[in-house]
Design brief:
Helices cover 17% and strands 33% of the residues. With 167 residues, it is α/β, with parallel strands linked by helices. Strands 1, 2, 3, 4, 5, 6, 7, 8, 11 and 12 form a 10-stranded mixed β-sheet that branches. It has a two-stranded antiparallel sheet with strand order 9-10. The two termini are 17 Å apart.
């Protein structure tokens, strides 16, 4: 049984941080979860590419691009995330190649689309605490995302109200 973000808020509201409703879903998965990894970038997605080249192991990458109006993820990085086992990405920034990434089996939540790519400016910071959309993203905590929103918890939550099958 899938656990939804609404279920988490209902049953574990004291544990849940709920992101402000600023993210749109762009990836091919509309429901996913994973342990959080983080990166802060400034339009330059070189370190984001390096992160996505590593085994994701079902993790969820929180990316703070500072809301800069350029795409930091497109078709190539969405494919890389899927191929390397990342559950998804939540991006305080923008994406492009929307029709292509919507077919990729990876969850991608971002502020919106933008056809312009980023510039090569500066190195990113990995595995740091981030704060955006009213939520603290801490490496090792857990992120849940679906059609209802994005929720972060310090520890994993199991399926709530799970009922045994009827015989």
């Amino acid at each position: 049984m899938k656990i939804g973000t609404a279920d988490i808020c209902d049953e574990h509201g004291d544990l849940a941080q709920v992101a402000e409703p600023v993210f749109l879903s762009f990836g091919g998965l509309s429901h996913c979860r994973g342990r959080i990894a983080t990166i802060r970038i400034d339009e330059d997605n070189s370190d984001l590419i390096a992160s996505l080249n590593e085994p994701g192991q079902g993790r969820f990458l929180a990316v703070d691009a500072g809301g800069a109006y350029c795409a930091v993820v497109g078709e190539r990085l969405a494919r890389l995330a899927h191929q390397n086992g990342w559950a998804g990405l939540v991006i305080n920034g923008y994406v492009r190649d929307i029709s292509e990434i919507s077919a990729m089996p990876v969850g991608i939540w971002a502020l919106g689309p933008c056809p312009r790519r980023g510039t090569k400016k500066a190195r990113g910071l990995r595995d740091v605490e981030l704060e955006f959309a009213g939520v603290r993203f801490v490496p090792g905590h857990f992120l849940y995302a679906d059609e209802d929103g994005v929720v972060v918890t310090a520890r994993p939550v199991d399926a709530v109200n799970e009922q045994p099958p009827q015989s």
